[in-house]
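User: quick one
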Amino acid sequence: MLPKFWRKIRFRYGLIGSYCENCGNYYYPPRNLCPRCRRKGKVKEVQFSGYGRVLSWSVVHDAVENFWISKPYVVALIELDEGARIIAPLDCNPREIEEGMRVRAVFRKFGEDGEEGIIHYGTKFVPIG
Amino acid sequence: MRVAVIGVGCSKFGELWEMGFRDIMISAGVEALEDANLEGKEIEAIYVGNMSAGRYVGQEHIASLIADYSGLADLHIPCVRVEAGDASGGVALRQAYMAVASGMHDVVIAAGAEKVTDVPNAVEILSSCADVEWEVFNGANLPALYAMIARMHMRRYGTKEEDLAMVSVKNHKNATLNPKAMFRREIDLETALNSPYVAEPLRLFDCSPICDGASVVILASEDVARKYTDTPIYIEACTQASDYLALQSRRDITTMDSVVQASRKAYKIAGIDPKDVDVVEVHDSFTIAEIIAYEDLGFVEKGRGAELVREGVTMLDGEIPVNPSGGLKAFGHAVGATGIRQAVEIVLQLRGDAGKRQVDAEMGLSLNVGGTGGTAVVTVFSR
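Assistant: Done. Structure below.
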């Protein structure tokens, strides 16, 4: 499972996605083909600013494996300022969340593959201000 | 070629500790053969919906296994396993339907089977219907994804937690009338609303139970159907649509475009309107999914789905009974079997064989959804 994680490091750590020069749409996670332009598309890598707003969210009590120690935790559907949407953990007090709340990306530890396995890192979001 | 259902079978759904994958599958198959009055040698092909035998029971190549244990190995007929998450059964039904509709085969089995209780991480495996690398890795399993759908639907359209709970109460009540259902007990609104949160705003009673089970329908061309049964039920349309796998890529998370597309196409092929449908089985993997299905199937306009459950329209004695079987919530959700199990219920209802939960119906519809709507299969049945 090491290469499976390793080859996504750039996109997960740095919030790198795709931009189609033909239609101007942004995508996260990255795509090889633009679903709007298909073969006419010109897909380029893009670094997202990391700023966005919360569209929807859930406080998760029945956790995914990597998140057992932090449950309950928040996952949110976030619209990045460039237009792409991302589902990501939101690191904050669940009672503070409001629809449309501004957030920014931060680099965080997600979990590890046992005591001797690799440590998973990725992008979480926090409220601004 | 017009396609008829000439026989149906269904195992009990639940935690079937004393039964293995093979036992469950065969119990449903034998029942269907008896129902269709077939010996076995009439069958020309088998399509089996199964999501994850490899992870649930550690066995792949189950197509051969099923032909073998169905006693059909010596017939050397083709058997095909079909996978589309928890829409595997619906997609298998459609493949079987096309095999008969095309004129390729006269008598075909469409089956679905799943054995999930041999492993401790059944829910985690089910969550691989979602995008494992970009949703689940980020902490969003299936309940969390449906929770985000629910919250947006609530905020945009005023749907309440009580409305979700009413779906659960309705489906539990229907299941009390179904001898094969997993949960055959009524619950009240208070119980549902006081159950613990799984992923807010969804509570335990908003989530269907993943379980063991198998279902079988036997399809035949119209030409030969009457040889086997006096009560063929016809498939007027069987359509399938896909959408983005991950919720984050969808246009609007409060609508399943796959359901809208598949159902519109099905209505067109069948030459009917949503109001012509008398009985419905929908994919209530979570209660919010049933409310959204009312809207996306066109029974009510977008945003007003909750009104149907509030006003009792979808109850057993309502205008459009939905999930008379008990639905995924109370009949149980045997993953790859569910799409076929829904077809079994509609066929029983249209034949008048649904026992205490019988409704008055001439036209029925089933909706099987994979994950959060990446796949949808809509089937229209008539007497």
